[in-house]
Amino acid sequence: MHRGKKYLNVKKLVDPKKVYPLDEAIDLVKKTSITKFDGTIELTMKLNLDTTKAEQQLRGNIALPHYFGKKVRVLVLDDNLTKEKAHEHHITLFGGSEQITKIKEGWLDFDVIVTTPKFMPELSKLGKILGPKNLMPNPKLGTVTPNPVHVAQDFLKGKYSYRTDTYGNIHVGIAKVSASEKAIKENVEAFINFIKTKRPSTIKGDLIQKIYLCSSMGPSIKVQIN
Hints:
Layout: H1 5-11, H2 22-31, E1 40-47, E2 59-62, E3 74-77, H3 83-88, E4 93-95, H4 97-104, E5 112-115, H5 120-124, H6 127-130, H7 148-156, E6 160-163, E7 169-176, H8 181-196, E8 208-215, E9 221-222
Parallel strand pairs: 3-4, 3-5
Antiparallel strand pairs: 1-7, 1-8, 2-6, 8-9
């Protein structure tokens, strides 16, 4: 892969053989940001998981201590939700079967669906559309609920979903480059500690094998695991 001069220059600041304490890694990830816009700091975790086993496929929702401005488009499927109540709770995408029809026709301008159980039979028929994009509501994630407005509020305030990929890695945006070192550190530590609580009982050895930080288009920095 061809790399530009800016990337190659900042990459020299990172020792590929070194595992950095979190404070140093955060300082370095700020210094190695090369975008003109306020880039996102991404956290990658390599976990000791066999994702061919269902119980070792980690997925869920989390709200970090510091909201970093990632706007989430939430579609609420609840035919009891009035325009007045939706407006009161700042919900702009809502409805019932008519929204599911739009999805069938190719509309996917949303990041999360929160629905009442009533609409799951209709949504389950759209597995080929919603499944590959991780948009299918799931009771385990709290996105199938009798109270979708309450759950939608959590997502609108910064809650978002995470999941392991095929190789047992998790990739999440953790903060903006412009955020303070303290806020970045607290978000990183909160996410790491949260994942530790999700350790499957069937694995042996350490759950977290490697942790990396990087800014948008910046080099990866290996972080010490405490």
